[in-house]
Amino acid sequence: MNNKVLNNRAWLLVLPMLVLVAFSAIIPLMTVVNYSVQDVLGPNARFFTGTEWFHSILNDASLRNAFVRQILFSLTILAIQVPLGIGIALIMPKRGWQASAVLILITLPLLIPWNVVGSIWQIFTRGDIGLMGWGLRELGINYNITRNAGDAWATIILMDVWHWTPLVAMLCYSGLRSIPEAYYQAARIDRASKWAIFRYIQLPKLTNVLVIAVLLRFMHSFMIYAEPFVLTGGGPGSSTTFLSQSLATMAIGQQDLGPSAAFSIIYFLVILLVSWVFYTTIMHMQKDKNPHGGA
Amino acid sequence: MAEITLKGLAHSYSKSPSSHSDYAIRQMDHVWHQGGAYALLGPSGCGKSTLLNIISGLLEPSEGDVLFDGHRVNELPPEERNIAQVFQFPVIYDTMTVYDNLAFPLRNMNTPEYKVDPKVREIADILDLTPLLSRKAKNLTADEKQKVSMGRGLVRDDVSAILFDEPLTVIDPQLKWKLRRKLKEIHERFNITMIYVTHDQLEASTFADKIAVMYDGQVVQFGTPRELFEKPAHTFVGYFIGSPGMNFMSVSHQAGKVMFGELPLPVNEAVSRSVAAAGSSNIKLGIRPEFITVSQTPEANSVPIEVVNLQDLGTYSLLSFTLNGQLFKARLPEGHAPVGDAAHAVFSDQHIALYVDEYLVEIGHE
Amino acid sequence: MYRLDNAQQGEKYNTIFSRTTPAQRRKRNARSRLRSRFLLGLYLFLMILPIYWLINMSLQTNSEILGSMTLWPQNLTFDNYIGIFTNSSWYMGYVNSMLYVALNMLITICVALPAAYAFSRYRFIGDKHLFFWLLTNLMAPPAVFLLPYFQLYYSVGLFDTHIAVALAHCLFNIPLAIWILEGFMSSVPKEIDETAYIDGYSFPRFFIKIFIPMIRSGIGVTLFFLFMFSWVELLLARTLTATDAQPIGMIMTRTSTASGIDWGTLAAAGVLTIVPGILVVYFVRNHIAKGFALGRT
């Protein structure tokens, strides 16, 4: 990595990209910051409010609940999707037409528009016309996602597992494919058990992709919006209302510019902070393991 | 301890091999004796890695048997064959320390720790790995890693053979000889059968007592380095061993003379008789570059040659010349190089070898 | 005298090898293989089930859907699909979605290619910070940008155009593309560039004629990811459009009216949103495994 040439004209190559991203990231972000410290009453009536909006957001009980729910949700789906994804990657065929076929099938849920994912599960879980809802009812289970918060939660988790486990599986699968055959051969000669092969050969090779997987899954699950919005609408009550939906309601529905801007900033910072902490911790751990390694 | 016998062995990667070329290994018989240091030498693609993998059990041969001490082990997987294998690229368990790497095969066999520890330390000591024992294997240099993977084979008491698949490919040149010496040392100390696959004749001859030269899916000669040089059993061995390799002339017998194309060769009676008796259209005479002498003026039994190029290589010089339109190489001692474009060459009669259908045929010299 | 006599030796091998016979082992291997096949099959079956149900419903009339439970269509009907394909307000939703996705892919790849090249080949002032800042954009919740986007695009007169959505999706797609492409480009040896410059290639000619063909598969995979994230996003697309550029996802909400939900049409529209994804993944199926490692395993 250190053999790159110092050349400041490279900025010219980066410039078009920079202009575009700046247009879609910096200007809107500045607007948000601007709103977050003002009270906008009309086109010509705004007052500087300082940190008032931030205080009120941080003290808002319903938002705090949404935040707790959000954390709970992200942790739950990570705890399910990461092991499940690894497991699926391990049993996926490595070559031949089956490999291609399984790849295409597994990727399928990732390519469905998020609101359609919501619709699919809405249909699937309805007691009258959905296979799952109907099936559970036939089995005598009182299942109703519009009434029972527990059912709604379980369904949303199930939906997210269905939707996103393929991403973890695909990442792990590509990681596994990069392990040279000689490693498996050496392990056989060393009489390693299947578990030992997994623990000492496969898992270490998967760390890199798993870091990416956990980061991506954390980020996306923390921003989840369309799927639960379509499936449960955040209900029953507000039991499945997550942060993005609270924000959308506040900004678009109620037009509370100031508070929603303050909320936006806190929201963004939380994601940045968690991702950064996670990333530096992992990198730090790898450095500890590798005191002599110049990458 | 094991003697490894290959009986009628053949292997093809295709399910229903029909022609010769479908086979990676063609019908062969071979015995590796207990305690020998062997090299398996050949160009890439000759089937030597396939053969190694069959011996270690990573591949099941499609025909014939692999016998360990007379017992058929064809279907036995590598983990039950008591062999160790060192691969081209060092295979180590990144997350473990060197100590744990060495202990790994023992722990996999549920060896109690009080037995593991002395064994690991003993092997580490032999391989000069003791100062590294507590280091993570990931941070070792390539040669250290290769030593660790070798050590994993040595810790097991039951290992009867160690197979090496071009183990020095990724090692720095100046460390290669050190590691090769280590191998020698281990071989002498443990009396283990070692089979060393390589495409480098120097590596093979410094390591092995006997070398099996493989060509096109078969072992074409099995002998000491000296035998391979002096009596190549196959034209390929002549060409592959020695630098540069043997010169070959396609000859025929016409009107009592040995003809190299249009040119009658001044060879002695014995050679001439053998060529006449060969009874094949594929007859070649081989002569090593070391056994060609060149002079400025015609001598007895000399042939006129055209000098193409002369390379001074210090203690000797390498002469390229053409005879009858074919390129030859001669290795001349210092001060024996000809001047000018035309010269005369003598092929030493005792060192002319006769090949019929690519295989060596003894000439009744003297 | 290391050599044991034959009987002894036989015994020795028997004790070593007797743990399993070849037949037993083969059986065990076959069984473990069968087990993983079964588990994989089960997963795929459960995964397909909701999609199957969608397809099943799309081929039924509303009266059949709402009537008794049927596991497959009893009266196969394509009316739902015909309805979508003959109604311009419906199929224009697909056209709109595909238009902005294609526009976004085009814009993104055009600006990301040179930028990724710069990151993979050169050091320049602020390069690390710039790269990190780019990645933070991947972490920005779209919901945060809803309102500012709406106002921004409204004020520059781009509201309800395809280009507005395409530009908005650049927020996360450009960083993603640069990230993936940089990985692929770094695996191309630098010597290639240097040789080309020595041979007298100018930078643009080298880039288009030599470099881009070399990372073809990387570009394919990148386009796949761009398609994926632009096609599935709805929140921004919905907010920035009203009628002229409305995505299919928004039009689907029309199926729920005062008189109830038109399940058949909703299902058919849903099925049709899956089709482009299948086509795209089919094209990159051979590179996708490497692609998911983002070019850097």
UniProtKB/TrEMBL annotation, chain A:
Places the protein is found: Cell membrane
Keywords: Membrane, Transmembrane, Transmembrane helix, Transport
Keyword Membrane (UniProt): yes
Domain ABC transmembrane type-1: residue ranges: 67-278
Membrane topology: Multi-pass membrane protein
Transmembrane segments: 12-33, 71-91, 103-124, 152-176, 197-219, 260-279
Pfam families reported for this sequence: BPD_transp_1
SUPFAM superfamilies membership: MetI-like
Cross-referenced PROSITE patterns: ABC_TM1
Family statement drawn from the similarity comment of this UniProt entry: Belongs to the binding-protein-dependent transport system permease family.
Descriptive protein name: ABC transporter permease
TrEMBL record, chain B:
SUPFAM superfamilies xrefs: MOP-like, P-loop containing nucleoside triphosphate hydrolases
A Pfam family it matches: OB_MalK
Gene3D superfamilies the UniProt entry points to: 2.40.50.100, Nucleic acid-binding proteins (2.40.50.140), P-loop containing nucleotide triphosphate hydrolases (3.40.50.300)
Keywords, alphabetical: ATP-binding, Cell membrane, Membrane, Nucleotide-binding, Transport
InterPro entries assigned to the protein according to its UniProt record, in alphabetical order: AAA+_ATPase, ABC_transporter-like_ATP-bd, ABC_transpr_FbpC, ABC_transpr_MalK/UgpC-like, Mo/tungstate-bd_C_term_dom, NA-bd_OB-fold, OB_MalK-like, P-loop_NTPase
Claim: Nucleotide-binding is one of the keywords in the record: yes
Top-rank lineage group of the source organism: Bacteria
Gene Ontology MF terms: ATP binding
Domain ABC transporter: from-to ranges: 4-241
PANTHER family assigned: ABC TRANSPORTER ATP-BINDING PROTEIN, MALTODEXTRIN IMPORT ATP-BINDING PROTEIN MSMX
Listed name of the protein: ABC transporter ATP-binding protein
Organism in which the protein naturally occurs: Vreelandella lutescens
Automatic annotation (TrEMBL), chain C:
Signal sequence residues: none
Superkingdom of the organism of origin: Bacteria
Subcellular location: Cell membrane
TM helices/strands, residue ranges: 34-55, 98-119, 131-150, 162-185, 206-232, 263-284
Sequence ranges assigned to domain ABC transmembrane type-1 in this UniProt record: 94-284
Keyword Ribonucleoprotein recorded: no
Entry keyword set: Cell membrane, Membrane, Transmembrane, Transmembrane helix, Transport
PROSITE patterns xrefs: ABC_TM1
CDD domains: TM_PBP2
Topology within the bilayer: Multi-pass membrane protein
The family this protein is said to belong to: Belongs to the binding-protein-dependent transport system permease family. MalFG subfamily.
Family annotation (PANTHER family): ABC TRANSPORTER PERMEASE PROTEIN, MALTOSE TRANSPORT SYSTEM PERMEASE-RELATED
Protein name: ABC transporter permease
